[in-house]
Task: structure prediction
Amino acid sequence: MEIQTTQSNNYQPKGYKKFLAVFFIILAFFLGWKYGRAGQELTVTSLGKFIQRNQEAAPKDVNWEMLWDTIKIINDKFVNRPADMQKVLYGAVSGAVNSLDDPYSVFLPPQQAQQFKDELAGNLDGIGAEIAIKHERLTVVTPLDNSPALKAGIKAGDYIYKVDNAETRDLTVEQAVLKIRGPAGSKVVLTVFHTGETSPVNITVTRARIEIKSVSWETKQASGKKIGYIKMRRFGDDTTDLLSKATTEFLAGGVKGVVLDLRNNPGGLLDQAVSVASMWVKPGDTVVLQKFGNGQQTDYRGEGNPRLAGVPTVVLINGGSASASEIVAGALKDHGLAKLVGEKSFGKGSVQELIDLSDKAQLKLTIAKWLTPKDHDLNKEGLEPDVKVEMTDKDFQDDKDPQLDKALELLK
Result:
């Protein structure tokens, strides 16, 4: 998902009245929340005063009596009254945002807002291991460097048979992650089979705050040539700095090509996407066009020194490459700076602004859409690869990567 820094804007994007409605509902329900927290009933008198104070802010083409009537009925007749006005507040705002019929506009209550910030920053509590279902078993793909999992003896290829004595054979990856994750300092017992072993072992892992870097890199060989490989998991605060370090290492090491792996990268921060593309795109050349509902358009251009502009580059994409990933891939493709290899991208080319609300909640609202430098609408069409290579389930199960193999072949 693409998140911009929250700023004050003078334009009024399409759906502005609906946004005002959301804002007004937030104000309206704040009174109920305040009374609920104070243990007081939201009375007709207080409600009337609130309406009088805020009626000028309400859009005139909407009859707001339904809202006030509903609040009063809840307070008067709900079987388990007094109702939790905090929940009423969140439910009302969430419903207002959902009414926009936009899957990317979302209300985030305080806890979810913090989780979203942590995930964008690459921070979470857990054991620090990537897991997947392989050969119908919950398998450790790799433990992260310096992670609690690695320190406890968890190894790549381990089959996780049980989590806290509960078998994992019927769990999805998502369900397993929820069981394995937990607050920093807490413990989880994993029963695992190490590769080649016939007896399981119990390993107790103490969870910790895990910092997952958005970029990792290594140097690969292709027909005797050094090829720099960059895996970009998301576009977070650390992305540009890490990419710069990788670039310095590659150029000093004499790489003859670069593979930028954006597969399953869901996006992130717009400014980081522009900075990443600027490693290839010349200063002043368009990286992405941002078009608002009122016709206003912003042209984001290359900035700084394009240190990788002269290095042959292949970008790997698939159906999980979205948003900021598509911005970078689209810019490099349109300017002839890279070939795209893999499968069609997700097609998520809309802009969400992350807006702080009261009580540490947040509103993620779609305000614009993106076009590539050659006016390709990312939101409608996604990106087609220059060289289509599928990655099958069998390839994954057998630890094969034909897409990366093709990228290295092209750079030979």
In short: The longest strand covers residues 362-371. Residues 149 and 239 are 24 Å apart (CA to CA). The radius of gyration is 25 Å.
